[in-house]
Amino acid sequence: MNTSLTPHTEITGASWPRQRRSIPAAGVVLIGATLMLSGCGGDGGRDAKSVSATNTGQIVSQSRNDYDSIIIGWGEKHSPAEITTPSPDDVTARCFGNGDDLSAVITAPYGWKISVSHPSEVLSVENTEQDLTAELDTSNQYYPDLREIDWSTPDHVDIAAAPRVPDDWYSPYGANQQMYVSLHVDCT
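The line above is the sequence of Lipoprotein; the predicted structure tokens follow.
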């Protein structure tokens, strides 16, 4: 009985000692796969190609002066603390994913931050200056086919929404106030 720890050619079919050329190649493959995977998950998204007024042509606020404008805010009058119409240069968006996995985070003046994710009809809204947060459902209970958040064009999201805000958002105008969001994000 052979008690030697060194395999012989007659047992393994290979001469001993084997040269370990595959270890450096495996190391390169492992490092490459690690870098590729870390780049997919933690890159922080990408800047939107553009942010503009909604393409739907719907007017979400009560003012016809807002037609063809980006609109973000809540309440009843145009002011930094209520309804704003920022220029496209003042609104930024970060896009994450593509197609059916698209989501976007929109940041606008006066503390507004709005997040949306395909295919949801919910706006995650935050205003850091007014200390407001809410998950606002834009779905229409009477006409389910009417969508205020349009995902129909791949890598785009078009929002023309006026959902009710929570009652704890204090307004001098009383309860049942609306959030107004009208914009288009191109994530191509």
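Note on the example: Confidence is low (pLDDT under 50) at residues 16-41. The CA atoms of residues 111 and 127 lie 5 Å apart.
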